[in-house]
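Exercise 7.
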Amino acid sequence: MNEVLDKGKAFFDYKATAKMPKFSVVDMNGKTHNNDSIKGKYLVVNFWATWCPPCLREIPDFVDFYTQHKDKVVILGMDYEEADVDKIAEFVDGFMVNYPIILADEKNQAEFNKFGEVLGMPTTFIYAPDGKLIEYYVGEINIKKLEKSILKSKS
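Solution. The predicted structure, written as tokens, is:
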């Protein structure tokens, strides 16, 4: 039990001072996303997998949220599994995903680890435009939580 409490305390200490890491990832369409390309916007980094039911349930909210806020928010869907590109593309099309999907391939894998420990699926990190980590969720997230996190950071 103390180990769990220690890990929790360490996380909250981390969250209080955490900043967005320097990163550079390439999405399924070959576009590079990095600190420069998201400058001035909120960054939502969502670690997910096709085999994860809560991950699949939250995708429609990410799609809606991105549609409404893409002028001030970047969402990166980090597919946390080694999978066939065609299979993932078909999956993404089926869910009508409108935000960049980053595959856990040899180009991107080292970058995934820079964001922090993924303790479960899904895991979502939300960063303010100044790079500060403003929220961290392990488990399913919805559009209300996304909006609340961003509105809370503006005040």
